[in-house]
Amino acid sequence: MNEISPKKVRTSTLQEFKVAGRRIACLTSYDALTAGIFDTAGIDVLLVGDSAADNMLGYSTTLPITLDEMIPFGRAVARAASRALVVVDLPFGSYETGSVDALANAIRVMKETGASAVKLEGGQRSADTIRAITEAGIPVMAHIGFTPQSVHSLGGFKVQGRGDSAEELIADALAVQQAGAFAVVLELVPSELADQLTKQLTIPTIGIGAGNGTDGQILVWTDFAGLHSGKPRKFVRQYANLFETLIGAAKTYRDDVMNGSFPNQDEDF
Ligand code: KIV
User: Fold this and answer.
1) DSSP assignment of 121-177, as one string?
2) Atom of ligand 1 at shortest distance to CA of 28?
3) pLDDT tens-digit profile of 22-56?
4) Which of these, 125, 130, 175, lies nearest to 150 by C-alpha position?
């Protein structure tokens, strides 16, 4: 393992990591508690993903979440992280109408959250927007392959870039790099293509369901911690089973309240 551990991770640090072959560990976070824990654990990038929509707010996709809803999540994570680079997703509807709106919303995220960068989805179609935001001095993480905000036009959760569409994905990757993105998330991309892009691009690639050859990996924290019931998706590795742990704890607490064993004499005043 190539270990470089700076006091503060910046976009330039990620670039240094790529050059040094030091892998980049990223997780999503939406609150101060988990951000503090993941930061202490040495996670390099905390993404305040619009996956807060389904994970925190109970929406069934990422589409409904608004900028007003994203900002408090971003602020909480940025307050709690001292080492990790904090990146906030621009939600659906906050950048598609053009570079002027996109820049205004990116500025709002930077001013109101204290994060260090924004992320937005799309390759060639988002290149002008990425350029406008980066030229204003705001670092942009790009996101290509399966882009959840386009779930309806992509026809569901499907691997992207298979067969003939590989050329399109390569063009997307080159377009976001050319536009000034400091890193690119590759979601649900065949591992061979992700390896090729990682070699071809000078900016770091961060994979999710894109195999082991990308410069870094990202998981949604509620997936990695096993907070959901049911079978996780193929690319998710569960590092804990918090669903079972919390169900067990809540049942035991309930029983203790019912049978009068909580609180006991040591727990009162
Ligand atoms: O919103 C999110 O959690 C993301 C990750 C899946 C990369 O964009």
Assistant:
1) E-SGGGHHHHHHHHHTT--EEEEEES-GGGTTTTTSS---S-GGGHHHHHHHHHHHH
2) 3
3) 999 999 999 999 999 999 999 999 999 999 999 99
4) 125
Assigned token pair, 30? 């939406």
pTM over 0.85: yes
The answer to whether 17 and 23 have CB atoms below 8 angstroms apart is: yes
Section 10-32 average pLDDT: 98
192 is catalytic: no
Q: What's the CA angle centered on 47, arms 85 and 181, to 5 degrees?
A: 70
Atom of ligand 1 lying closest to residue 51 CA: 1
pLDDT at 2 over 90: no
Q: Phi and psi at residue 94, in whole multiples of 5°?
A: -100, -5
Residue nearest (by alpha carbon) to ligand 1 atom 1: 49
Q: HSE, CB side, 13 Å, CA atoms: give it for residue 22.
A: 14
pLDDT on residue 3 = 64
**Crossing angle of the two packed helices 32-40 and 67-80, in degrees rounded to 10:** 40
